Amino acid sequence: MTVPLLFMEDKDEKTLSPLEARVAFAGMLDNAEKWAREVWRKNPQLREFYRMKTLAQIDDDLHSWDKWEDIRDDYRNGSYTAYFYNKATGRDIKKAIHANSREELKKILLAEARSFEPDPDDHRKVMREYFNDRGIDWMTRGLPTCWQEYDEACLNPGYDGSLSWDEDEE
Question: Helices in 18-68 by DSSP H: which ranges?
């Protein structure tokens, strides 16, 4: 059995053996992180897409707080976890979220989001994993053209931009 090369522009169908296809796929995956870092550097809109997608997720979490008493209880009791990226060590610091008000929750979620922003020059584990995941995603789906396409799923596509990434605007 042979596998057609769908990405070839040549009209002549080219095929790979199953072993060659696996090797080519492994090579693609191995280079996904490096490729995503270069794509990030060359496409500054990806930074804004990332920020907007993240703010939309926070907005969705805040709407859940407003709508559901059981979610409010879970946040009050520390059932949800926040991951704060420590830039000095390159590690995530895991903390239970204990929020007794919407404003408290908003402050915690924004602080968590602001602690991590993709940096193509940071080669620590968390960033390697991030860029590898994005690279695999973008290689298979294509680069996003709007913030709603930035990640695999957008839980809040109608987000109105009401939250700010910059701390001084809060």
Answer: 18-42, 45-67
H helices, E strands: number in the chain:
5, 4
Angle value at C-alpha 110, between 70 and 162, nearest 5 degrees? 90
Q: What is the largest CA-CA distance in the chain?
A: 64
Amino acid at 102: R
For 23-46, how does the pLDDT look when each residue is reduced to its tens digit (9 = 90+)? 555 556 668 999 999 999 999 999
Helical pair 45-67 and 102-115, crossing angle rounded to 10 deg:
160
* pLDDT at 170 (0 to 100): 52
Burial of 88 per CB tally in 10 Å (0-12, 13-18, 19+): exposed
Q: Quick one: residue 142, left, alpha or beta (phi over 0 = left, psi -120 to 50 = alpha)?
A: left
Q: Is 115 exposed, middle or buried (0-12, 13-18, 19+ CB in 10 A)?
A: middle
Digit-coded pLDDT (tens) for 92-133: 999 999 999 999 999 999 999 999 999 999 999 999 999 999
pTM above 0.85, yes or no: no
List CB contacts of 157: < 8 A, sequence separation 6 or more. Answer: 56, 148
